[in-house]
Amino acid sequence: MKSLLVVRLFDVAAHLPLTLLHRLGSWLGWVTYHLSGKYAARLRENLAYEWQGRPEAEFRKALNANVQEMGKSICELPWVWRRPVEEVLGKVRACQGLEHVEAAQRRGQGVIFLTPHLGCFEIVSLYLAARMPMTIMYRPPKLAWLDAVMRSGRLRGQTSLARTDISGVRAMFKALKRGESIGLLPDQVPGSGEGEWAPFFGRPAYTMTLVGRLAESSGASVLLSFGERLPHGEGYIIHFTPLEFTADAPVTRQLNAALENLIRTCPEQYLWSYNRYKVPAGAKPLEQEKTE
User: Fold this and answer.
1) pLDDT (0 to 100) of residue 3
2) CA 82, CA 109: separation in Å to the nearest integer?
3) Which residues constitute the domain of residue 273?
4) What's the rounded Cα separation, in Å, for the pair 227 and 229?
5) pLDDT value of position 223
6) What is the structure's pLDDT at 146?
7) Is residue 274 in a domain?
8) Phi and psi torsions of 261, nearest 5°
């Protein structure tokens, strides 16, 4: 019953212009910031750590922008998930780095797309799935009634969803073996035993090792991607950047360094409120690992 109600509410919201939804999102961002002390505290802490050493005015400007952008990221979801795909993709005003995607496809060994919590990451998978088969790693939401609308919004074009469990990992390996493409959120905190500690903006973050295993076993090309949100609901610019791992450092360190560089191109649209530095249940904190 709740799922049906959510779908209907999303359908109503999807009929609103993207410009209006982004305006409402800016307002929602501030409401959420002021009502949720935990959310606001984590946002300020993570953002301040990245902005340390810079003038206070710069930090306040970045904070104000981020609060609004996070509200937009919520309010645009009905439009992205429930509008016709052709209409949604019509809002993609440019694609920078598409030549890297085409070159990776020509290699025929599969493509690993890494899309962090930056900008409108939902539109990236829609854009790619309109051009190629995509298997996307998917973590069901804690709110079960949201699952139906999330799945229906993502299962469009040539998209398949793989759960964040052993069956999903197998599906990812199989897709790459077929020479297809897969997508992951590389800054999502993995479960215990599925990651290792690596610096992320100067702090240890439990980082997934799956990316390295997938790349090594398949020989697939690795591309960073994100959908930059343009102001005033004008649309999006999609960016693709190649990432090549070397033997000089652990893959997790190289991955986080690459993510840092990508996020710094559009820091106001990163999900700084995400609990990136948590210790997963069952995992050992870095300090404990060092003493053993």
Assistant:
1) 59
2) 33
3) 2-279
4) 6
5) 98
6) 80
7) yes
8) -60, -40
288 within some domain: no
Nearest to 201 by CA among 120, 93, 276: 276
Q: Which two tokens stand for residue 238?
A: 């999609």
**Over the chain (292 residues), what is each successive 10-residue block's mean pLDDT?**
69 91 96 94 92 89 96 96 95 97 94 97 95 92 80 90 91 95 95 93 95 95 98 96 94 97 96 94 71 56
Q: What is the pLDDT of residue 51?
A: 87
Alpha-carbon distances, residue 230 vs 27, 91, 118, 126, 185 (angstroms): 17, 10, 13, 17, 22
Judge whether 286 lies within some domain. Answer: no
Per the CB < 8 A criterion, the answer to whether 43 and 273 are in contact is yes
Q: What is the pLDDT of residue 6?
A: 67
Amino acid identity for residue 267 in this structure: P
Listed residue (29, 32, 39) closest to 65, CA to CA: 29
236 pairs with which residues across the strands? 92, 229
Nearest to 262 by CA among 291, 288, 238, 236: 238
Closest CA to 183 of 141, 228, 224: 224
| 101 domain residue, yes or no | yes
Taking the C-alpha atoms of residue 221 and residue 204, their distance in angstroms, rounded to an integer, is 27
> What are residue 182's phi and psi, to 5 degrees?
-135, 160
Quote the number of domains for the chain.
1
DSSP 279: -
Q: Which pLDDT score, from 0 to 100, does residue 2 have?
A: 56
